[in-house]
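Why run this: before we spend reagent on co-expression, it is cheaper to look at a predicted model of the complex and decide which construct boundaries make sense. The entries below are exactly what would go into the expression plan.
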Amino acid sequence: LNSPLELYTTELGGKTGISPYKIKVERRLSDLLDYFSDREASEEILRGGEDPIIYEVYEIPFEPLEGLLNVGCTVIYPGKVGDEYYFTKGHFHEKESTSEIYIGMKGEGIILIQDHEGKAVNIKIKPNVLVYIPPGTAHRTVNVGREKLVFIAIYPSDAGHDYETVRTKGFARVVLEEDGKPIIKDNPRYKRE
Ligand code: S6P
Ligand code: ZN
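The model came back. Tokens follow.
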């Protein structure tokens, strides 16, 4: 990890969105089996001997400490499982008071944002758009384009990530391809609290 007392710079752009970075995380279809709506479609792809990369995250993280900011760059590949576009798992922050900033770099996507009651909004992300994600909300990013979706995230290093709520309850909305275009629908499988 970088020392939080030392200044650093990283260059924006290129394949990894930031360079240099410290940590690379890779998420493949097999990591996301509980997340995509069409489980049968997921298993079909895996049975075919493929386990495609869905997204990568390149990070410059600090230890969890109030006042420190982590930077991460997410690269979501273009693609679908059944009719559903590739997306990130999505999460709430464990520390409920923490917010986050996303900055679009490449490609186009939709951020699904919802609170614990399931009140949901969706917002476009693309180059030169900055999105403020308020505290207490789960966020998932969906790549609805034909190229990779690349965006930078800046968030408190002590935010913590609660993946379990989204894994078990799902998101209130899904983004599907219909007639070659993305449409946002209520998720029939969403388990309201
Ligand atoms: C972290 C921030 C992003 C995500 C990344 C991957 O707070 O929201 O860096 O970690 O987009 O998504 P996920 O849901 O797998 O962490
Ligand atoms: Zn987050």
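Residues 57, 72, 74, 88-91, 100, 139, 141, 153, 155, 159, 161 surround D-sorbitol-6-phosphate (ligand 1) (CB under 6 Å). Residues 39-47 form the longest helix (9 residues). Bring this page to Monday's planning discussion.
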